[in-house]
Design goal:
The structure is a homodimer. Chain A is of the alpha/beta class. Helices cover 38% and strands 16% of the residues of chain A. Chains A, B: Pfam families: PALP.
Chain lengths: 423, 423
């Protein structure tokens, strides 16, 4: 039980306090609401050693997540690998590189399972039996899968141009999927209206303050797997701009509990050039985010033109000595291939964005080649096959004879590599 | 170090012993070779409590896997969830049901990562730098991904009719993929010739004895997650027929170590009716497997007409009081949907086969409704989208207005469910 640990919600702009209920934003200034905890009570109640003996899921950090009782949805989410990426490090010319690989998150193969596990557990606590979301794809699948497992009815609204794998990855679970002719920002506005009118629990609308906290678990796991330390640099993809802030919040919470040394991590945000409202604000030192009206990128999961947390994300990057950078579709695909060929990790287009930006930042000298760097991979390549299918050579077809095989590879055993002793 | 634990290879037919090298089969009678261990030494060296404190990957059972040194490939493989499937249990009318979910195995989302991790770790030990496989799809992706991460050159041979997701899921990693005009059995025969001629390490040809042992880790994990016990029934998909035997071997090894009670598990095997050489042998009480010359099923990953371990699989099912059953494409798709809608798990077609067979066996009374049952899901639904895309309704498209949404769902808030207190 962690009910004693969540104090309530607080507006990030004016500081007004609210009870822990389903709320979209501050009624005074429309500012986003942040969950507040009683960290002293958490510190008295929880030891690092206790946590380390718990099952390796996101819920081992449950005192730092905004659920009052035991979690009821998404019990297997999280605990994804932090991969020491030595072959990729060599290719990029850096010393210490890690991939946080949420492409294999349970159940729906993206980091969204983390936020949905919290949002739907909270929805059950608040008494909702119908839930929903506005999604660029990964959230659709995660809400549909987790709602199905929990026996909740789910409405999933998506732009009408999504990849087949992401659409089927929501409909297969029996969710009521509705495609909207328009972009994500149109979808999102409609969801706000529906949530208000029908009184449903939309994970990224009226459950958003709780939902967003789920992302912290990615930061907790990274720090734990680094041996309880924060990395020197971390590169995070940005759509709405929430994840980068929550990972930083996670590091700061661990620092506050005295579990890790003071955090000096430089936070780097990655976007596609075809939808770069946040990185553009960083690079032009703009005071506010200028929405992108017509996003055009193969990284559809990042194509949010009017990012809810863009302002806070750009502020964070500047305050921590980080930076925001964006890359074009060509660079995205090259990076997807590089990641697959060096580390055997097939990320979706968003992962290509993050790695391509990492590469650019290393070349620019903004990421120190001697420091430790974590690259956050948030979704699986199987979901965005359209983006690469025409860019990867199709296999040659031969008949099942040794002669045709030898002719294809242009070698007989004499020319091929010699057999080792064991063969 | 576990080198002291592996004694060598033994022919399953004549018992002739061989050293632990890359060998296809017994030179006397072409019988399959089985890895032999020194269980007494393992029992003296390893305690259950020691193992429980290790990272949750397949390698926590490394003393029972045929690697001489530390594993070097696939270090993150295994540790997949055993899901207590209460909603599915209710739908099927059984008391205690579990899904062993290798659809989220690392890195390539199928149980094949287990066998490949062992085979490639062994390939490195034996000095191979070029590896390969004959595959119906999942093995292709697993060899390609794990070989890329390990820096090994990989040749992947597949039938020329595979699903896009499985082809792209091998080429993306930079493996040399060759499509063969023919079925799996043609591919497999060619691979035997190539392995012999070029001296390469083909995981399911000359590395097969080691490779197959990797499947035991699925059984170890199931028993551990059940609180160190074997289930009353387990349903396992069969292609070559190896997995079912290795899971049983795993239970028996744990029994031999005194870690679980004597094993009374009834072993059930699942195939598609369009390629059912093993279940057909069970149902007709045949003395030998009659190959299926022209497999026709949407479950392409199970479409092996001449299964290498079919004889042993059918023998095992009969000896344990289990059974073999097969199902048609319609039943496969229905079961895929049922699993997704009740448990939020999107399995590939093979998973549909296994669940549909489970359902049939329950209806036939062959699986006891009051016993415990584990259903093995071995691959991810994102890889076989073609099989269901035309069977799942596409989402309706509306403009982004509340009026169109209400018209679509045929409800205004008054008719829809009432909002809960928290809304």
């Amino acid at each position: 039980m962690s009910s004693e640990f969540v104090r309530g919600l607080t507006c990030r702009l004016c500081g007004k306090r609210y009870p822990k209920e389903a709320l979209n934003f501050c009624t005074e200034d429309f500012g986003p609401l942040e969950v507040e905890y009683d960290y002293e009570a958490i510190g008295r109640s929880l030891r690092r050693e206790t946590l380390e003996r718990r099952p390796r899921t996101m819920w081992r950090y449950r005192e730092l997540l905004p659920i009052d009782g035991e979690p009821t949805v998404g019990l297997q989410v999280g605990g994804t690998p932090l991969v020491k990426a030595n072959r990729l490090a060599e290719a990029l010319g850096v010393r210490e590189l890690y991939i946080k690989n949420d492409a294999v998150n349970y159940p729906s193969l993206s980091f969204k399972d983390r936020v949905v596990a919290v949002a739907l557990s909270k929805a059950v606590e608040l008494g909702f039996d119908t839930v929903g979301c506005a999604s660029t794809g990964n959230l659709a699948g995660s809400v549909a899968a987790n709602a199905a497992a929990a026996g909740l009815e789910a409405y999933v609204l998506i732009p009408d141009n999504l990849e087949q794998g992401k659409v089927l990855g929501a409909t297969i679970y029996g969710a009521k999927v509705v495609a909207i002719s328009g972009n994500y920002d149109h979808v999102n506005r409609l969801c706000s209206q529906i949530a208000f009118r029908f009184g449903w629990g939309f994970v990224n609308v009226n459950l958003r303050p709780f939902y967003a906290e789920g992302s912290k678990s990615m930061g907790f796991e990274i720090a734990e797997d680094l041996g309880w330390r924060a990395p020197d640099h971390i590169v995070v993809p940005m759509a709405g701009g929430s994840l980068i802030g929550k990972i930083h919040k996670a590091f700061k919470e661990l620092e506050g509990l005295g579990w890790i040394d003071p955090v000096c991590t430089r936070m780097f945000g990655a976007q596609a050039t075809g939808c770069n409202p946040i990185t553009n604000a960083v690079k032009t030192d703009a005071k506010r985010i200028k929405p992108v009206r017509d996003p055009r990128t193969i990284a559809k999961s990042l194509a949010i033109g009017d990012p809810a947390d863009g302002f806070f994300a750009s502020k964070l990057m500047k305050e921590t000595g980080g930076w925001g950078e964006d890359v074009d579709d060509e660079a995205i695909i090259d990076a997807m291939k590089l990641l697959a060929e060096t580390e055997g990790i097939w990320a979706e287009t968003a992962g290509g964005v993050t790695l391509a930006v990492t590469r650019t930042l290393i070349e620019q000298g903004k990421i120190d080649r001697d420091g430790s760097t974590v690259v956050c991979i948030t979704g699986n390549g199987l979901k965005t096959q359209e983006a690469v299918i025409d860019r990867i050579a199709r296999p040659p077809v031969i008949r099942p004879t040794l002669a045709e095989f030898e002719s294809l590879i242009g070698a007989s055993p004499a020319e091929a590599e010699l057999a080792p002793a064991g063969a």
